[in-house]
Structure formats: structure tokens, C-alpha cells
């Protein structure tokens, strides 16, 4: 039996943020149990047999929290590339800069007019009421039927693999650009693009190794405390013990868990039925990441592209060679380019992954993203079973039944799927949550994101 003051499940951004802060505060009696054979979790990267590097879905580095900024500066220093976002939406055959609703003048005149009239009517009649409704109603009330029909509704249904009317509208804040119809009208009449919205309009990316390089380097100083290939099999909350699939047993005073909280509850042998039932109500989607490496020079200057059309398999395509030349073999972007595409599915929106790589590659060409018929140098398909925690209408009520029960037993469920809150589900939030829970365990300080 290993005795640890703090056991941590997961060496992703949240677990590593926690480990780092515990170390800084002088708590070294810590063990991290990680199911995978390396660190990084959803923010890890892989280099395939042909030498192309891929993330697990399009990651960019931006931050709201000093704790993440400091981690990044410590581990990467200057090994970061900085980009201005160039993000576009393909809608009804037109490329429109993101945010779509701010740049309607790029659409054909009839569609632009339909969107504009809806936006003005929504802006002048629904003020104040939209925020309280479900996400589908919120989209229609906020943007009007045109923007809803041509982009917002089909795009969101595609990303989340969930009907927007089954989702809450409480999480939106800075995740969806709301807009002032007067500014849109001015932009439409002058034909000027509005590109600035959002916290990621400038972003950074590691110079090499993909996003996962951050976490490889962050984990390195603490390798004596991290056990890889050690999935936690069961937890006994009352006894303060857990066991891994490899047979290690750990007794803990505190458990910080960053695994999906529904699975944690399933694996907690003494969790009561009502907590299990609530955890079972939490909804997530799955993303297949399809990386297509081409033997063709990098010629596209755009960062990433959105697709609302349900006949296009992916909702987003990322120009990954543009993020860093090191994402292609030999950093040779005069010879190679790469597109990383994300395809969602869920229990309600199923899709077969058979032939998905070929389907995605063909759609890159049919949408005009890739010109001609360049040679495919690599086709990398990876499933991310838990990708987006879906903010359903019942999510918060379910979490209120699950998290306090765990917390009373000194089990702190944190991070993207530990708290199931997409609105605070990025890397910076995960590091902040990990750091804060460490401070609370050691010093009793209040946490800011829970
Ligand atoms: C498609 C996609 C795009 C994204 N884009 C961005 C972006 O642009 N910018 C950004 O900042 N963030 C982005 N994110 C979010 C980012 O990946 C997460 O914020 C971050 O990885 C969350 O860290 P975490 O530590 O909370 O969880 P995770 O990364 O999920 O880490 C949890 C860890 O727990 C381990 N684990 C699970 N079960 C067990 C078990 N039973 N025993 C032991 N270990 C276990 C897992 O292997 C994993 O390593 C994106 C995510 C996705 C899916």
C-alpha cells in the first residue's frame, strides 16, 4: 500500500497544475496515477509513423489565468510561435470570416439580407429574454432565423452532436459572439470585415512537438511522482483508498480526480444510487480526429475553418502545418502540408468511423480547402471518446448531486471532465483549477473556478 497525502488521477493539464503547485508549496507526499503512457491528456500530441505531428483536435494557446501563463513561461520560454487568428466559415458556398454573424456582407445578397433582417428584428424585439432560454431558442432569439438557419443551428448541432434545444444557454458568455445589429449593418454597408472578436484572436503554439510539448515538459521534473499506464480501477471513498489496474493500492488523505466524473462515480464502490443516477445524466460527445498529411507545399494562410453543412463530415479543419512547420516531416513546408479535421458523434448522433479517413480527405477537396489532387502522405485517425462535456439542461442539477457527495469525502473532482463545464474547460482553466485545489488542500485558500 502506497500512502500519499494527495493522490491525483490524471497527468493532464489539471493534474499537472495541481502537482506543480503542491510541490511549490512543499507537499511532496503525492502520487499521480495516469491511465495513458504519457502526460497531457486531451492536450497531448502524437507524431505518426510518417513524421506528421497531430493534436487531439485543434488546440491553440490563449489564457485568462496567470497560473497558466507562468507554467507556459517556465516550461516553454521562447519556444512558442505567435499567430493572428485567420478563421473562416463556409456557408452556402461563401467563405465568411469568423464570427459569421459579424461579417454578413460576405454572403450572397439574398442570404445576407435574410440574415440581416432577422438580426435586426431579434435585436429590436427580444432584448433581455433570450438569455434564459435553451440554447436552440437562444440562438433564434439572439440572431434571428437567417443566421440560425445558415450557420448557428446546424453548426452547433454538428459540433456538440446534440440538439441545441437540449442544451442550456447559461454557459455562453465568451464562447459565442453576440453582436450589435448596428455594427453588423455598418459592416454590411461598408463591406468591412470585423475580425477582432474573442479571446483567441491572437494565439500561440509550441514551436515543436504540438500542444503536447507543453505537458511533456511540465511533467518532466516530477517523473518520480507520476505512474503511467496506471488506470484507476476502483476507489473506496469511505476508506480513502484506491486501486489501479496494475494492482497498486494507494491510501490517500485527499484525492484530486481529473478523470470524467461519471466514470469516477461508476468506479467508486461506495457511491450511492442517487449519485450514480445523477452522474449517469451527464452527456458528452466523442470526436474523431482525422489528420491528413499532404505531399504538397503549405500555401494556405488561414488558421482554421468551420463547416455547418451536415454533408461535410467535419465541423472544423485546422491548417496544422501553419501552426508550426515542425508539424510536418523535417519541418519542410515547401514539400508538406497538413490538415487536422474534427468529426463529432454522440449517443444521439451516431456515426460509423469506417472509411472516415478517406471520407474526410475527399471532403477537404470537394469543399475547395485542398486544391487539385495532391498525394496523401499520411492519414491519421484517432478517436477521442470524451471530447466535449455537453452543457445540457439537466447538467447543473446533476452536478449539484454528484460533486458535493465526493467533496464531503475529500475527493475533489476538477478539470474539463471533472467539473463537466465546457465554459471553463480549456487548458488555462484546467491548470487554474489544479493550482487552486492544491492551495486549498495545503492552505485552505478558496478556489476561484468551482
Ligand atoms: C477537440 C478539442 C479541442 C480543444 N481545443 C482547445 C484549445 O484550443 N485551447 C485550450 O486551451 N484547450 C482546448 N481544449 C481543451 C483541453 O484539451 C483541456 O482543457 C485539457 O486537456 C483539460 O485538462 P484536464 O487535465 O482537465 O483533463 P484531461 O486532459 O482530460 O486529462 C485527464 C487525464 O486523466 C486520465 N485518466 C482518465 N481516466 C483515468 C483513470 N481511470 N485512471 C488514471 N488516469 C485516468 C486521462 O488519461 C488524462 O490524461 C480542447 C479539447 C478538445 C477535446
Which keywords apply here?
450 residues, alpha/beta, Polyamine Oxidase, Chain A, domain 2, 13 helices, 33% helix, binds flavin-adenine dinucleotide
Layout: helices, strands, pairs:
Elements: E1 2-9, H1 13-24, E2 30-33, E3 45-47, E4 53-55, H2 66-76, E5 80-84, E6 87-91, E7 94-97, H3 109-125, H4 135-160, H5 181-190, E8 202-206, H6 212-219, E9 226-227, E10 232-236, E11 241-244, E12 249-257, H7 261-267, H8 273-280, E13 283-284, E14 286-295, E15 304-307, E16 316-319, H9 320-323, E17 337-345, H10 356-366, E18 375-384, E19 389-390, H11 395-408, E20 411-413, H12 416-419, H13 427-443
Parallel strand pairs: 1-2, 1-12, 2-9, 6-15, 12-20
Antiparallel strand pairs: 3-4, 5-8, 6-7, 10-11, 11-12, 13-19, 14-17, 14-18, 15-16, 16-17
Bound molecules: flavin-adenine dinucleotide (FAD).
Flavin-adenine dinucleotide is lined by residues 9-15, 33-36, 41-43, 57-60, 231-232, 258-259, 287, 342, 384, 387, 415-417, 425-428, 430.
Amino acid at each position: 500500500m502506497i500512502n500519499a497525502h494527495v493522490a491525483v488521477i490524471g497527468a493532464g493539464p489539471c493534474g499537472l497544475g495541481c502537482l506543480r503547485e503542491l510541490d511549490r508549496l512543499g507537499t511532496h507526499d503525492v502520487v499521480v496515477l495516469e491511465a495513458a503512457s504519457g502526460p497531457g491528456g486531451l492536450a497531448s500530441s502524437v507524431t505518426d509513423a510518417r513524421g506528421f505531428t497531430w493534436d487531439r483536435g485543434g488546440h491553440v494557446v490563449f489564457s485568462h489565468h496567470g497560473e497558466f501563463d507562468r507554467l507556459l513561461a517556465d516550461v516553454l520560454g521562447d519556444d512558442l510561435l505567435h499567430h493572428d487568428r485567420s478563421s473562416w466559415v463556409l456557408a452556402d458556398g461563401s467563405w465568411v470570416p469568423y464570427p459569421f454573424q459579424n461579417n454578413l456582407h460576405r454572403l450572397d445578397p439574398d442570404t445576407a439580407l435574410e440574415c440581416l433582417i432577422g438580426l435586426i428584428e431579434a435585436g429590436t424585439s427580444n432584448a433581455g429574454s433570450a438569455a434564459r432560454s435553451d440554447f436552440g431558442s437562444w440562438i433564434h432569439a439572439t440572431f434571428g432565423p437567417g443566421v440560425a438557419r445558415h450557420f448557428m443551428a446546424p453548426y452547433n448541432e454538428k459540433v456538440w452532436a446534440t440538439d441545441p434545444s437540449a442544451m442550456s444557454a447559461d454557459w455562453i458568455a465568451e464562447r459565442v459572439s453576440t453582436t450589435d445589429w448596428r455594427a453588423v449593418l455598418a459592416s454590411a454597408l461598408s463591406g468591412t470585415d470585423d475580425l477582432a472578436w474573442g479571446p483567441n484572436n491572437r494565439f500561440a503554439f509550441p514551436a515543436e512537438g504540438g500542444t503536447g510539448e507543453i505537458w511533456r515538459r511540465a511533467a518532466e521534473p516530477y517523473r518520480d511522482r507520476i505512474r503511467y499506464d496506471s488506470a484507476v480501477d476502483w476507489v473506496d471513498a469511505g476508506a480513502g483508498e484506491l486501486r489501479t489496474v496494475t494492482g497498486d493500492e494507494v491510501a490517500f488523505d485527499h484525492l484530486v480526480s481529473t478523470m470524467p466524473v461519471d466514470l469516477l462515480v461508476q468506479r467508486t464502490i461506495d457511491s450511492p444510487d442517487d449519485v450514480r443516477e445523477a452522474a449517469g445524466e451527464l452527456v458528452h460527445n466523442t470526436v474523431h480526429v482525422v489528420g491528413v498529411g499532404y505531399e504538397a507545399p503549405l500555401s494556405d494562410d488561414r488558421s482554421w475553418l468551420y463547416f455547418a453543412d451536415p454533408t461535410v463530415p467535419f465541423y472544423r479543419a485546422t491548417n496544422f502545418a501553419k501552426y508550426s512547420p515542425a508539424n510536418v516531416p523535417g519541418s519542410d513546408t515547401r514539400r508538406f502540408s497538413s490538415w487536422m479535421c474534427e468529426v463529432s458523434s454522440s449517443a444521439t448522433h451516431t456515426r460509423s468511423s469506417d472509411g472516415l479517413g478517406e471520407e474526410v480527405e475527399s471532403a477537404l477537396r470537394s469543399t475547395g480547402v485542398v486544391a487539385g489532387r495532391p498525394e496523401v502522405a499520411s492519414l491519421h485517425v484517432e478517436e477521442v471518446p470524451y471530447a466535449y462535456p455537453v452543457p445540457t439542461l439537466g447538467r447543473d442539477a446533476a452536478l449539484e448531486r454528484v460533486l458535493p457527495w465526493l467533496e464531503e469525502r475529500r475527493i475533489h473532482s476538477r478539470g474539463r471532465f471533472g467539473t463537466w463545464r465546457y465554459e471553463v474547460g480549456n487548458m488555462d482553466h484546467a491548470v487554474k483549477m489544479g493550482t487552486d485545489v492544491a492551495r486549498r488542500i495545503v492552505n485552505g485558500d478558496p478556489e476561484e473556478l468551482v
